[in-house]
């Protein structure tokens, strides 16, 4: 049986992995059967609803990184189930933004799954706006870059790509670099299975200890109160996303945007914060419930 191709989407929180996946799926689905496996570090799956319009099977693993030992059994189970039940030509696996894929093929090489799945192609999305600001304090960003077979430098309409290019080239001189702004991907993704990958290193995929996660799900929140809370913790908020009061929140590195009204009725939010303020933030968020 022909092995299932595997495309792993890596990249830090808010880099634009799901937006890139939305742009790539029309082309990928035209070439064969596609399944998607999403990994959310938070306990609530928030991105699957964005992919419903493509009418393809989407599964989720929540509550930790798929490469952490605590979630490896879930990952292996999903990979086995997808191969048996869905039998796709291609599986797109979107990793948690905190994942550090030193070599994502190692897990497959160490199990019977190596006969079912081809070696993964690693596509790492790099945020041109925030990468220069965060790379020196969060080593995971450079590790994601170094592991890539292909790099996509996103948000080039918001920041000059030259600020990131020298560092990217030093870390990974072989990987082709594509560019993406809010509307378009510049360059052609040459997708194909990786033939070999020598010198596999031990996977190291834990969240940095100085980052904490806050999940919220409920009825409604005070709009003005939430804005004040985001402003109060702006310096500690690294990532936030979700839907509340029928508006979608996207927050990266203390800056946030609200989309127009969305159809989702479920109110759920996910935040990643620096330092030890998570308990205070979560308590104040709870107090905003209406």
Describe the structure.
By secondary structure, this protein is of the alpha/beta class. The chain has 2 domains: 5-186, P-loop containing nucleotide triphosphate hydrolases (Rossmann fold), CATH 3.40.50.300; 211-286, Hypothetical Protein Yjia, Chain: A,domain 2, CATH 3.30.1220.10. It has helices at residues 17-30, 72-86, 106-109, 131-134, 140-146, 162-171, 223-232, 278-286, and strands at 5-11, 34-40, 58-62, 90-94, 121-127, 150-154, 177-180, 185-186, 211-218, 237-244, 247-252, 255-261, 267-274. It has an 8-stranded mixed sheet, with helices on both faces. It has a 5-stranded antiparallel sheet with strand order 9-13-10-11-12, covered by helices on one side. Mean pLDDT is 83; it is low at 198-207.
Summarize the structure.
This protein has eight helices and 13 strands. With 290 residues, it is α/β, with parallel strands linked by helices.
Give the number of domains. 2
**Shape category:** globular
Q: What is the helix tally?
A: 8
- Report strand %: 25-35%
CATH class of the largest domain: Alpha Beta
Helix content: 25-40%
In order across it, which strands form the biggest sheet? 3-2-4-1-5-6-7-8
The H/E string reads: EHEEHEHEHHEHEEEHEEEEH
Quaternary structure annotation: single chain
The CATH homologous superfamily of the largest domain is called P-loop containing nucleotide triphosphate hydrolases
| Structural class based on helices, strands and sheet pairing | alpha/beta
Largest sheet: 8 strands, mixed
| Tally of strands | 13
Radius of gyration: 19 Å
How far from one another are the termini?
55 Å
- CATH structural architecture of the largest domain: 3-Layer(aba) Sandwich
- Integer average pLDDT: 83
Which fold name fills CATH's third level, the topology of the largest domain? Rossmann fold
Uncertain stretches: 198-207
